[in-house]
Amino acid sequence: MSTSTSTVDNLLAAADREWRALGIHRRDRVTLAADLRAELEAAAADGLDPAELLGADPAEFAVRIAEEAGVERTPPRYGQVLGVATAGAMLSLVVGYVAVISLHQAFVAAFDLPRSVRVPVWLAAGVFYGAVAAVAIAGAVLAVRIALRDAPHIRHTAARMALLLPPAIAAAIAAAVTVAWSLNYPLTPLAIAAEVAIVLAALLAATALARHWSVTAAR
Q1: CB burial of residue 101 (10 Å; 0-12, 13-18, 19+)
Q2: pLDDT > 80? residue 153
Q3: How far apart are CA 210 and CA 165, in angstroms?
């Protein structure tokens, strides 16, 4: 590979990263990259340094190309969406915990069962984890829908979060319980942190997928 070809590839990779950050669809990025490659290779064939064509700020040049081409830009804003979803889930869990503590006696009176009734452990665990998951999912979805209501396609993102989060969180809880069972249910900070990390990773992955789905579908 010649030096000029390597330089062109590096410049195109830098431009593509900028176009991704702008939220430009892959189809449009391919078209922009093909046009830019032709220009850079023509400059190299004329004995010019391809980097000089982009100027001192290649990122700004990539933005200018996209603006001149009039391609649609929809920044996915993954970081903001993931941060708001995580904060909403955590806040809802805290509020739910405070509510349960405050209404403890009422819950005991409402769900107090006779001693003769034996609730299976799996059922009790399912109800507990299911309630926690439902609260966290509701908090994440509502936070994204309300706090980011002015972001493009956020309504679709929230709807797809509501669709994707339940199975993702359920699978993550099952994985976390399996890990805890394999370690004989330790209550060490490291083990608890690992279980929380599994569930948090599922929440972030499902939220990112929901946002990606919404943005790409809109295009």
Answers
A1: exposed
A2: yes
A3: 9
